[in-house]
Amino acid sequence: MARLNARHPWSHNDHFHRWILSNLPARRRKALDVGCGQGGLVAALAPLFDTVVGNDADPAMCDDTADRCADLANVTIAGGDWAHLDGPFDLVTMVAVLHHLDVDAALRDVRDLLAPGGRFLVVGLAPPRSVTDHLWDAASMVTNPLIGFAKHPRVSRVGPQPPSYPVQDPVMAYDDLRRRTEAVMPGARMRHRVGFRHTIAWTKPA
């Protein structure tokens, strides 16, 4: 699969930026992207919010985002503990980040940081455990090269490359994560997606 994907490479995480941008809250004063990586989502959010804060635990990723957003006056880069940043935020996003964190604590911290009516949008990963999980993984295996070909028709000769950002394999199963999320954020919508991903969307009650 890695060799096949390398022929038509595409970013599974960046692919879901469009989903995030189509689910933004109505009020757009301040946004926080936790685990901002190389800054693609921060840059995409900047024209849509008064202020965007990019946060990453990796100093190199903060530097990458700062370089990418150097010309965006409403973007701030903050390293360290995101849970103690000055809120409230109308949007908090995490793309392939939640499984790196203490999930229960992170969900509570996001709930506290969000303004009433604010939205939490997650693109995440979980190991397949249930029959449904495995069916979605099978669908991802089939669609993965098709999406790659559509995004990158020309065959790449470079071969598989290591990721340019810190990675960690997820350990919490989808169903367990859904239960934990619902306990902290009642009414959260969690869905399987192709690309070996799932999404979570929650709006804090007004």
UniProtKB/TrEMBL annotation:
<keyword id="KW-0808">Transferase</keyword>
<keyword id="KW-0489">Methyltransferase</keyword>
<dbReference type="InterPro" id="IPR029063">
    <property type="entry name" value="SAM-dependent_MTases_sf"/>
</dbReference>
<dbReference type="GO" id="GO:0032259">
    <property type="term" value="P:methylation"/>
</dbReference>
<protein>
    <submittedName>
        <fullName>Class I SAM-dependent methyltransferase</fullName>
    </submittedName>
</protein>
<dbReference type="GO" id="GO:0008168">
    <property type="term" value="F:methyltransferase activity"/>
</dbReference>
<feature type="domain" description="Methyltransferase type 12">
    <location>
        <begin position="32"/>
        <end position="120"/>
    </location>
</feature>
<dbReference type="Pfam" id="PF08242">
    <property type="entry name" value="Methyltransf_12"/>
</dbReference>
<dbReference type="InterPro" id="IPR013217">
    <property type="entry name" value="Methyltransf_12"/>
</dbReference>
